[in-house]
DNA sequence: TATGAATGAGTGTTCATTCAT
DNA sequence: AATGAATGAACACTCATTCAT
């Protein structure tokens, strides 16, 4: 009995990611993916039941990686002060994104392709994983540690700032060392911190 | 191309926009557009030479509207203090976006569909129009009025904050009156303002 | 403005019918149909919105032809005695089927391919057209002119007898003149006629 | 092929039959069958060399069952009068079909799917098995016991009458007790019996 | 200006079948 | 005996685009 080729599943995901980064999520097709991996088109369906399933898996893999980079346990550790935890969260994403500058682009592309149906139950599931951060943020809002605006506004600020930075890096506009995490953190924290921040 | 019946040109754009908002930019097709307008498919090509051309025109129209909402003359008026001009700019976008909550979604969808080729010459053209704001921001950075981070980081913060807000409104998460412009402006300004801000 | 090529619609139907007769309804594919007509595959969708739509149209066309062959007005003419009307009905189908020995095969093949979903609303519509005959038969049952068995049993007897006969003819088992309508009518009528038949 | 595990061979046939009854013979696929049985797709090919082989075996099994229900020995027993033997034949099928209302549908579906090629050598083989009945009928025709029409016309009358009845039962249109065998036998016999019947 | 017709290339997906294990 | 992997061919259907009218 031949082993389920785990390598291939990953290679398919990698090919998909590569296409997304090069041509956009809308340009992903099973033909292109298969051609890139060097397998037959129908083979894709051995590892993913759908194109949606494939895209979703790439999305989930990317989110899992980001979360693995940060230390989730710390984020829920109530013995750590909220501002510290928020900083840890941002630091985690930032470091990962700078190391993997395609990561956030990937996430955003897939989200914008699939999320439009508004109520796509699959993406909802994934979002659920992110609830840890959302919960953390909501806590911080309630405690007055960060400003009283909708939490997804806070989150989108973090995301778009870091994403834009990594895009700039990828385009070679400047060097990673030109702007430190502190620079961005400072900017953001000055903006979002609430009356009870310190 | 692009002849007499201006009404129809607009109706085609409107239909395109509607499809983007409902199903995402990737779902736009000349068939759907034509059906929605009630014309024949080939008629679309009388007004737009391409599907890309069509999408681009919707993109440009939307950006033009936003800019028309703000007072561009003021933004370049050197007799007005930089912080004031920046506020005017944000206010302009904010007011327009709250009034037209689909606007930023439209822009983002098209950008993410077409912009991925990275070097799409058409979108580059459009970006040019936005140089007014970019120039303003760069000026502010140079003067130390806002922090020394890449200007597109500043801009993406403005964009994503307001966009997230309008999405929340459209989803009915809260009422427009629940969060004033001041709230968001305060947050953002606290974040981005530089040493020479006041 | 080019005229909607009515010829082609018919040619597509004809090709479909030919395939059904040669290989069975399950073997119909848009590729085969198009190839047979000498057009591109996608062209089929200009004339029929579906493969189902195409099959259905062939089905309906065949039924319409059969009904046009018989004189429907007579069947509902209450001044004509029931036995006479029943005979007219059988005669109509018989003559048409002998002249067009593929007709009943066509109908049966499509019915067996599409009708399995049991509740296919499209076929139901078509069956509706046949209600005229069903009504006639029910009348005859109620009047004791034909035996008290479910009307569709009566109808299937007529159909299968004639169908088998035409199949035999097509296979060249014997000549049309070898068995007259009278022969079959006699057989059937002796079977189905009720106590109040004469 | 066709090795040890007889249970599995049967289970595959059962699954096939179930699919035919639910979705029609054209919808049968080895994937679906395997899924239904809970085995791997390729396993099917251990028991049947073909999809055609599989379908054929289901067909043959069904015909064998029907024939086993009737007493074949009696049908060829020349000491029994022809009319009696014909009645026995009809009674056998009727009883079996009422008990197994899917039986005739199964046979018909497969016949219509495979038999269209007209000359399918496999089905021809099967028909051979039925020669016993055909011979009986031919004998009856020659003796003037039943009318002088092609024997397959006689046979199709029997088949379609009973089939329609069982379909009605399955659809719940009436109860099995509502129409006795006698009712149908009487109808049919009155129709087909020849000058030398009694 | 407007349209219906036409097409070729493309889409995602399913399938029957084979083969190494 | 049984399976997972693999594939090539087929499928229905959609699309952007062109062209004659």
From TrEMBL, chains A, B, C, D:
<dbReference type="InterPro" id="IPR050109">
    <property type="entry name" value="HTH-type_TetR-like_transc_reg"/>
</dbReference>
<dbReference type="GO" id="GO:0006355">
    <property type="term" value="P:regulation of DNA-templated transcription"/>
</dbReference>
<dbReference type="Pfam" id="PF00440">
    <property type="entry name" value="TetR_N"/>
</dbReference>
<protein>
    <submittedName>
        <fullName>Transcription regulator</fullName>
    </submittedName>
</protein>
<dbReference type="InterPro" id="IPR009057">
    <property type="entry name" value="Homeodomain-like_sf"/>
</dbReference>
<feature type="domain" description="HTH tetR-type">
    <location>
        <begin position="6"/>
        <end position="66"/>
    </location>
</feature>
<dbReference type="InterPro" id="IPR001647">
    <property type="entry name" value="HTH_TetR"/>
</dbReference>
<keyword id="KW-0238">DNA-binding</keyword>
<feature type="DNA-binding region" description="H-T-H motif">
    <location>
        <begin position="29"/>
        <end position="48"/>
    </location>
</feature>
<dbReference type="GO" id="GO:0003677">
    <property type="term" value="F:DNA binding"/>
</dbReference>
<dbReference type="InterPro" id="IPR036271">
    <property type="entry name" value="Tet_transcr_reg_TetR-rel_C_sf"/>
</dbReference>
């Amino acid at each position: 009995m031949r082993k389920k080729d785990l390598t291939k599943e990953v290679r398919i995901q990698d090919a998909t990611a590569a296409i997304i980064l090069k041509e956009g999520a809308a340009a992903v097709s099973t033909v292109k993916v298969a051609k890139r991996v060097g397998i037959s088109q129908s083979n894709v369906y051995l590892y993913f039941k759908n194109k949606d399933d494939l895209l979703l898996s790439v999305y989930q893999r990317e989110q899992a990686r980001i979360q693995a980079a940060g230390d989730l346990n710390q984020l829920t550790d109530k013995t750590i002060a909220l501002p510290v935890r928020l900083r840890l969260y941002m630091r985690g994403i930032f470091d990962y994104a700078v190391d993997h500058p395609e990561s956030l682009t990937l996430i955003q592309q897939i989200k914008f392709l699939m999320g439009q149906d508004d109520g796509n139950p699959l993406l909802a599931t994934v979002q659920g994983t992110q609830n840890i951060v959302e919960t953390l943020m909501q806590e911080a809002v309630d405690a007055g540690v960060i400003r009283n605006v909708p939490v997804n506004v806070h989150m989108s600020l973090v995301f778009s700032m870091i994403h834009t930075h990594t895009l700039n890096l990828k385009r070679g506009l400047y060097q990673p060392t030109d702007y430190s995490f502190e620079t961005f953190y400072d900017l953001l924290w000055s903006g979002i911190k609430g009356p009870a921040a310190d």
